[in-house]
Amino acid sequence: MNNDFTKDNFNKEDFHKSDTQHKILQYSSGYKAPFLLSKEEALSQLKAKIADQPTKNEAIHKPMLKNIYWFSSVAAMLLLFIGSWILWHHSQVTNVIAEKGKQIEYQLPDSSLVSMNADSKMTFEKSKFKHNRYLSLEGEAFFKVRKGKSFVVHTKFANIKVLGTSFDVLAREKSFKVSCVTGKVLVYSDKQSIIILPGESTVIAKDKLSKFLDKNIDLVANWSIGKFYFENTSLNLVFKEIERQFNVNFVLPEMDNKFFTGEFTNKNLADALDIVCIPMNLTYNIDGNNQIHIKEKEH
What we know:
This protein is of the alpha+beta class. 28% of the residues lie in helices and 35% in strands.
């Protein structure tokens, strides 16, 4: 390289191509050393300043890299947010609960109607329901299913599958019963399946599904209008229904061998208690804690 560095024949390109020593000579040619510094000290300071100067490429790339990192971070956060929202939206579970003392009517996303008895719970995925009509039930509900794809009700005892019909499902504690009012109902479990037609009901007896012609089929959904009919039903089960309808608690004597046939409504607690207790030779007392003590009438 030509070592003749003058203001007339030295341009920027030559300057960048030169080594550090040549750059120092070019810079220093126009300076005089300050009177307090020796030439060696001034030269040392000049070298330090040149070393601190960013190169042209560094000056361009640093802000560019900073912008790239920023946009990458923002894009990653947006993708994470969108992915989380999609996952939450598609896995969103809807819980419909009828608390003790309340009955509710509910319209499913496919326009099917459900009447839920007190102390019952229904669960389904709302975003998927129109394409996959599947729900879980704990308690009792009456369904009026809109015609369409298969409609499945899952219980801990068995599953119920229909296309378009009306039916009642009781799946509570140890009790399971499905009653078909209109259409056709398939009830199935891991072990067996059974089809019931209008007027028929099915129960689980000795771990097996069995069906029968239900003479009281017109009464199975009367609970949805506040009427409760029992035929030769364990008195313990009758009092449990009163607990659900009026949100009270009973203290009961031993009555495993007592059975009740009759009907009451959920409009008035005292009336319901009289209807059940008087013919069964029982008395009742309501304390301040909303507990009802049932005793056998003394002779």
